[in-house]
C-alpha cells in the first residue's frame, strides 16, 4: 500500500468512532482502554490494515517496537507444536499493534541471557517473552535486575526451601486442573486403576500435572496415597519412553487407563495399549488421555487436554505492553492482575470412549 492511500490514525479513529488518543492507547497501552472499545478499535485496525509509521514512531517514543523471543528446538515434532501455536498467536498480537517479534536461538539459559545483552545493545529490543520457566530461573532474575520489561508463558515457580521466586508478570495454564479433569473423565467411564506417565521429578510443569492426577485419584477414593506410587512412571518426554513406561506399568500394576503429561507420551502409551488389547481374548484396549491437544492427537482420535493458547498469547502481550509502559505493580501484593492462570479444557475422543473393562479394582 502506498503512502497516498495508507490509512492513518485519524482514519482508524473515525471508523471506530473514538478519539485519536484512544486508538493510540489501544495500540500502545491497551490497559487504559475498556475491553469492548479495545476490541472495536483492533477490529478496525485489522480491517483497514493500519500500520504505524515505523521510523516516526521510533523517534517519537524512543522505542524499537521489537520483542525478543527464544525459539526452542523441537524434540519430537509433536509436543513442539504447542509453542509453535503460541508463537503464531503472539506474532499476530504483535503485528496488530505495530510490533515485530525477533526470534533467536540459544543452547541454554546462560546463552539466552548473553543474547539478551546483545539484542538490547545492538537492536535496542524493547522487551522479551520467555517460555519454559522453571524454579531458580536465572533469566527472570537477570531481566528484573537490569530493569528490562518481560513477560513469561509459564509461572514463577517456587523452589521448596530456597528463596521465593522473582515476582514478575506471567501467563500460564493450570496443568493440575487439566490432569484432574482427565482423571474425573476416566472415573466417570468406570476406570479405577488409572496410571500416570509424566516427566522426571524437578520438572515444574510436570510436577504440577502429576499433582492434579494424584489429587483427583485421592478425591475419587479409588486408591490409598501410598499405592499410587506403583501407578506412576517418570520418564523423559517422547513417544518411545511413553511406550516403554506403559509396557512396564501394564505388567506391574495392570491399569485400565493412562493419563499422560504430554501427547508424545500418550501416543507411545496408546501404541502399547492397542498392542496389548489385540493380545487379549476380549480385545479390550486401555484408555489413554494426553495433554496439549496437538494436531497429532486430533488426527488419531486421542483424548487430550487443550491449552487456550490464543487467549494466553493475547493476555501475555497485553501484560508485556503494560511492562513496556512502566505499569508494573509497586508492591509484592499488587501482582494479582499481572499473573494469569488460565483453565484448560478436556477434549474427549475415541481413545477414552470405551467404558472400563470389567474386573477387580
UniProtKB/TrEMBL annotation:
Keyword Transcription applies: yes
Keywords: DNA-binding, Transcription, Transcription regulation
Signal peptide extent: none
Every HTH lacI-type domain range: 7-61
PROSITE patterns: HTH_LACI_2
GO molecular function: DNA-binding transcription factor activity; transcription cis-regulatory region binding
Keyword presence, Isomerase: no
Name the UniProt record assigns to this protein: LacI family DNA-binding transcriptional regulator
Organism: Pengzhenrongella sicca
